[in-house]
Amino acid sequence: MEMNIALLPGDGIGPEVIAQAVKVVKAIGQKFGHKITFKEGLVGACAIDATGDPYPDATHEICAASDAVLFGAIGDPKYDNDPKAKVRPEQGLLRMRQKLGLFANVRPTFTFPSLVHKSPLKLDRVDGVDLVFFRELTGGIYFGEPRGRNEQGTKAFDTNIYSKDEIVRLARMGFEAAQKRRKLLTCVDKANVMATSRLWRETVQELAPEYPDVKVEYEFVDAVAMRLIQWPKAYDVLITENLFGDILTDEASVISGSMGLMPSASLGSKVKLFEPIHGSYPQAAGKDIANPLGTVLSASMMFDYAFGLTEEAKLISDVVNLSLAEGIVTEDIAEGGKAYKTSEVGDWLAAKIL
Amino acid sequence: MEMNIALLPGDGIGPEVIAQAVKVVKAIGQKFGHKITFKEGLVGACAIDATGDPYPDATHEICAASDAVLFGAIGDPKYDNDPKAKVRPEQGLLRMRQKLGLFANVRPTFTFPSLVHKSPLKLDRVDGVDLVFFRELTGGIYFGEPRGRNEQGTKAFDTNIYSKDEIVRLARMGFEAAQKRRKLLTCVDKANVMATSRLWRETVQELAPEYPDVKVEYEFVDAVAMRLIQWPKAYDVLITENLFGDILTDEASVISGSMGLMPSASLGSKVKLFEPIHGSYPQAAGKDIANPLGTVLSASMMFDYAFGLTEEAKLISDVVNLSLAEGIVTEDIAEGGKAYKTSEVGDWLAAKIL
Ligand SMILES: CC(C)[C@H](C(=O)O)[C@@H](O)C(=O)O
Ligand SMILES: CC(C)[C@H](C(=O)O)[C@@H](O)C(=O)O
Fold it and tell me: pTM for this structure?
């Protein structure tokens, strides 16, 4: 198969982890006979520094012309504590999601037996957790208008807005995923307070009869924030709006103790995007110590979701599991054993594939 | 001292737990020579059933004329899955908060040594956790206009809105609390996305120099949702807007393993309100099995926050600790020991005070 992959390393540790995923993807290409071309683009703080724009048109063109995007991480502390900064790296991310039509962010949370003891939660709570969020990614309060300040600057406002169509397309993805999994769908909203949430709940209720094999539960976002910690094994597929999804997927990411390893996919249009859930971790940038496995597993998701190549996807996750079993890991999970460099882990994985 | 206390038992287990708090408050009154009068009002689903209104004017008059309100819980499942229900119990709660001017919800999370093993988190993460949220309670997306649907019903919208004044008054409470505690204030927002959050951050930055002894940290809501689970001991005082506060205080409530025991206070005007953080727990209603300690500890907060009577407040928390140490507890925390009835726990606490 021919594949055009856009690489957006971004900021901080982004370039280092992307470099390892590239090694792995190349090895897969070699082994399975795929013709893979990479094109790199700037995004985030590094794009602002170079062009003044966190998501330059040139980058968008590379992405739009690709079959899939591999994304590292963005963000730089110099922008975080300046609420008046005119241009922020995150704007690039948001514009990219919207312009590429990536309306669904898929975030699995699962456990690695060799790492589950690192969870802040007790073993019986997390052992075997296997849930996945479908977060709406191009609507809601992230993009709603009007937003801003009054003239005097003494009042600020944001608008949360959802159309039925936006809810339907995201919910259908959740229903379909649930059908292939444990057949439980949880619709997360705040229907006791928010008008948008009532439309979410109503829309999901209308769709439910089309998926008679899926059990649907409706739960308030505050209750989910509790139950995710109390008993995460109760969940299978969760669907929710953009802002709730932002909060809950990050909360869920710590459950398994494997945050640095968790991949994600953003879907919705021809071009699909894959990225680790961790941030740009600026303190570690350039040190060759960051854990590349979240990005490598994102590449595994890419073969599956973007190209339907499940064998390739599985081989990547198999070698990742092997690296964990054999202790070929970075310092964050080395625990007294030898700590390998980011680049060494990437080399090892690529060699194992070949 | 003379005290007029409004009692709003509400729904589900509300009446049973309030009844125990009343026993305790009466015992305190007797012991310390306070003249305490109680007046009861309807709120929530039971108020809808009786009057069609979840917060009837008669109830508001009782509250407004009182010195403090003791609140049980509201909510009934029959309203939860009907997104089109015209009147919902929660509307009563929201109207009450707004009409009474209760703009700050104070929610401590701390551990009871005898219960900390019940936490879903590992012992080293929770042992000694002591944090408190100040959640803005009468603004934000809970009340912002416009909210609703377009004519065809195919779009829904909510407005998040904050004025500088609303932020200032809440933030000052947080700063002052931090000064009396470990002197760390965390401002929780989503300033990388939301205009309201940028006003929050900017306003807190402006206030900070007035509290030079307080260290201020700014953290995104998604990061807090993670760190609260990873290392809750990192936090002291957290301030945040209404919706983020709703989600994060519930998340935090499970950390210590003592959710049924956690009290809360809502402040901001002459009349202050005190309530346990747990819900109406309809499955347990009428069975005399609900844990009354959250409500009893809310009464303790009432003596402290509403009347400045710290000795009375401390005596209540002391007898609660004694009941835990001696195993005079309801079935949710009895763990193989004898399970006492809700009413028996209340009787025991009142007797100990006298
Ligand atoms: C960086 C930020 C704008 C972004 C978001 O809120 O969506 C991030 O938190 C995420 O979840 O990808
Ligand atoms: C019942 C609901 C409207 C309420 C809220 O969201 O404020 C509750 O969750 C709370 O936190 O007191």
Answer: 0.95
